[in-house]
Amino acid sequence: QVQLQESGPGLVKPSETLSLTCVVSGDSINNYYWSWIRQPPGKGLEWIGYIYHTGSTNFKPSLKGRVTISMDTSKNQVSLKLTSVTAADTGIYYCARVGNYFDGSVNDAFDVWGQGTMVTVSS
Amino acid sequence: DIVMTQSPDSLTMSLGERATISCKSSQTVLWTSNNKNYLAWYQQKPGQPPKLLIYWASTRASGVPDRFSGSGSETDFTLTIGGLQGEDVAVYYCQQYFDSPFTFGPGTKVDIK
Q1: Cβ within 8 Å, pair B97-A107
Q2: Cα–Cα distances in Å, from B101 out to A22, A43, B9, B95?
Q3: How far from chain centre, in Å, is Cα B5?
Q4: CA distance B53 to chain A (A)
Q5: What count of other Cβ atoms lies within 10 Å of the Cβ of residue B86?
Q6: Contact A36, A93 (CB under 8 A)
Q7: Model pLDDT for residues A47-62, shown as the tens digit of each residue
Q8: Which residue in chain A is spatially nearest to B36 when comparing CA positions?
Q9: How far is Cα of residue B58 from the mean position of the Cα atoms in its chain?
Q10: Average pLDDT over residues A79-85
Q11: CB-nearest partner of B52 from A46, A109, A116
């Protein structure tokens, strides 16, 4: 049974860089696409971007230039970096697996989610 | 970007009643070459991550009770909870994975009277 566990600093100062890690257990990260999704307090879900083991990435256009997603296959983990953060970046950050319900492409539902990690941007 | 809208924002119903949530996309999410609608539904209970309920608009994910059903095509979709149970209290989101950026609806909160 695959499990995802996000971790990182709960508090980040404005203008600094938010760095999170998602450790995947129960399956190899090479077999799937992986996404980061966030949720501001009391609000809805926002897709941030995805990565595949080939190095292929794609990000929400409004976050491009600030976001990096990488993976470390030796540690079976996926990482997120978001630079120049503001209070608007406060929220719960989820790591999610893109399911393989059809053809193994990135165009599939998010079938496994981590518990999420809360990040507050404040001085 | 494909914009997802949902209605109603919230609904409060009695146990055992049927709940219906609507989701609309600003453009079609039907890929005609394979006749699949790239639309998913998620359930998020308080303090928990979202859980996949339905994918391809109408296929239940593993372990999801059969009182949850999805229907619709192209731009109009519906999630139906047939026979509301206490454990169904949650926010429900639709999401399109037809095109990047992948987008979610604003959510519909379901409560029990």
Answers
A1: yes
A2: 21, 18, 23, 11
A3: 11
A4: 9
A5: 7
A6: yes
A7: 999 999 898 999 999 9
A8: A102
A9: 10
A10: 98
A11: A109
